[in-house]
């Protein structure tokens, strides 16, 4: 059977230490992958490049929260009820499938099942009666009296549940952003897309909090003329950020800005610009928390257009839900430039009536009444000490008065750029994979960008001569001490050593030869041009750091 | 109630953004903590310092494997059967407790329970009948036909299950080391030690593979005169690494070397040398996989001596178990310097007998017989196509012959330094926390080492003057672009701004004043001496990087 590009990359990945299928010695299990020594570095380089965008360019702060998440959090966030896939079981071969994976794209999947048009991919039996299955991995905390918990489906909730503390850290100014990089989990029903659909994956998310009335971004002006490549499910368009926002193609500056940041990050990482687009979510595919979402999609020869980043406007959804569910004040107080005078309704409690009627509870009732927002003037029901109490009309009066206020409590809106690191990593491997011939033999290269390449340079003594070995090891140490990842190799011909480095995407190879002994120069070979230049040892570091 | 140092640090941590108790808005749950913006940086700095020891000094490679781990892996590793705590339930107040936590240190815990000497800390009832409870969080992979899994109790198994691939990556040379940094999980029964005993924690582990016959370390010679501070549960001793190994206090060079590396790392991170020791595990406390283990312990005013690092000799335990359980060849082939001639027993199959007797299976049987190791010459039973077959004596003969072999298959031994990052982080906060008075008022400082401090320098315009603000922002950007974490602050008096930085352990504060406009110099204030010096703007970066 002929191999496609995915098979080739996975073989290379396993042989050279990028990606290993997890638990293979026990037969493996779909949806889990290990990063070997090179994959681990590649992943870290991608994450650090990403951090430089969000921490340095966009001034976010980073936090780290647990992956085990309390039931209460994910109930409030809607994931317990909404984070589901329609599933069908095959009664004949006892397997379960994600309904969507069995129906042609664009078709109504529920109707297809109803009409008996969905067949088991194993045995051909008709599959009916789809039912929703929650995709979170569940576990229990403690022994005896346990608490229900899930592995987090996104890192975002760890940020939302700390909003009040983070807002204080940001000295109560909007907008401000918080990032988290780490594992996310999704118990896929029957994952069949290799490293693209993992059950445990690496995410990098930013949650940026805005005043709902003002979704402008302070950096927008300086980048607004950049062109974005958009696809709205009907037509493709190339359009400036500025025009896209003005024409309402993209709802607000903040969304457009993070789309630009995403595009710039992916191009810098080495994505093929011809295999990149933003696609808008249709109303029927929006997540339960989103009002608008644009995916950055990368094209894969095996998998087609792959969603690698989602940039969503989550509005006030999450913070409002947590305020409602927890009762904790997680509002943002936004101060006005100057105080405003507003007309307000106030309740004036009548203690002469409240006192005799409610006795020792009257004091507490008075405090609640004085501080509550007045919505309607009749049928006031309040809660005191977990007891609902109806307050008779004669126990209070309502007055309207003018009040000077210095600010208002708002629930910020959230713009969320969410990155699937594993998918980006795979697409970068695919986009940089080149097959060619050298001296009649098959030759493989990974043209990884310098900034993400796991090894920046090979270091080779030309021949196994003690003097050359000594200098080569010194050069190697010097580079490593300067934070440059090297691969020292004294085995085999120079051609073989170049080939080993080309195959793992190393942009440079340094060779120490007899001239080095004379004039302290070395050759530096460029992976993509295969040209060699001579440089002084002292100049190598700045040359390679570029 | 008076606060102890732990309470004070946790209050500071929450207020300033180091550590937040997780899920507090939903009432919280013991054993889970979030790292806020400063804690997250502090943690990352500790981890990166650690990486510099293992990746640069010790030449290890890093990998990343899933936290969700197949049942089969943890069954083989012994965790399913051995990773337990004795638990007692209180029938009266329906709570469960870890037996060990209720018995005085040094006492026989099982006997104490038998003798009715263990009381419920809540209601005083006698607690009896302890039973083992597995401490792994369990979950299930998939829908319908599920597979059992656990959250990993250590990152190590992800390394062991890839040993054969990693050994190939290391070009089949011993010793070589592999590290992993990430989450570990332990479903504690009733954790009551705050950030010291977390249910989800951050680990950094190295698994270094040695030839069992040769546990020397290539770097040992150059550091062997360093003094280690050891405690063998009876007496304390200060002893050189060299002498400790020669006298058999520490079993081998490899253990001693990683103890030294640990000590050097902790001191560089800023541990108080007076609050540091290595303690040897007694036979009764060794983990099920260890033959010898030394803990690096740090002293905490609240918690006493805290185990922060374990340096264990795991011998061949894990690799042997996985070879046995999976049947995969994970041996290391060690080539001899020159080939050896050995006497071997070989089976010569007799096809004239095998053919008629076993028909189409005879060929397969022949291959198995020729390749098997001969233990006894009679009663040979082999397995072909899942069927056990007894081979009659007349179907083969056994000959002894000389054979030249170039190497031998061995199961490497593992030396494992395993670090609890959260415990180290907390102890560093405690060791650097200083309370003093300033102008009659309480004043708090964190004397964090420069290398791990989350913010390296504050950047302050002296007053709110447009010209000063402009330069201050430029200086701030310049530092950030050079990878130096800064905190820009224009609010409040300089004294207040210094205080804010002192409290979070920022070693330097840079102030831009009117002289800056004249001569491009700024003041740099040192946290610990409070002395100020003037430096040119161009000199700041190298000064702060030290």
- Helix fraction of chain A by DSSP (H/I, runs of at least 4): 25-40%
Biggest beta sheet attributes of chain A:
9 strands, mixed
Structural class of chain A: alpha+beta
Query: Based on the structure, what is the oligomeric state of the protein chains?
Result: homodimer
What fraction of the residues of chain A are assigned to beta strands by DSSP?
25-35%
Order of neighbouring strands in the sheet with most strands of chain A: 3-10-11-21-16-15-14-12-13
What would the average pLDDT of chain A be, to the nearest integer?
93
**Based on DSSP secondary structure assignment, what is the total number of beta strands of chain A?**
28
Protein chains sharing the most extensive interface:
A-B, 78 and 77 residues
Intertermini distance of chain A: 43 Å
Number of helices of chain A: 18
Which radius of gyration of chain A do the C-alpha atoms yield?
30 Å
Inertia-based shape of chain A: globular
- In terms of per-residue confidence, which ranges of chain A show pLDDT below 50 for 5 or more consecutive residues? none
Give a written overview of the molecule.
The structure is a homodimer. By secondary structure, chain A is α+β, with helices and mostly antiparallel strands. In chain A, about 30% of the residues lie in helices and about 30% in strands. Chain A has 18 helices and 28 strands. In chain A, the strands form eight sheets. A nine-stranded mixed beta sheet of chain A has the order 3-10-11-21-16-15-14-12-13. In chain A, a hairpin with a 2-residue loop joins β18 and β19 (about 385-390). In chain A, α12 packs across α13. Chain A is globular and about 105 Å long. Chain A starts with a helix and ends with a helix. The interface between A and B is large, with 78 and 77 residues.
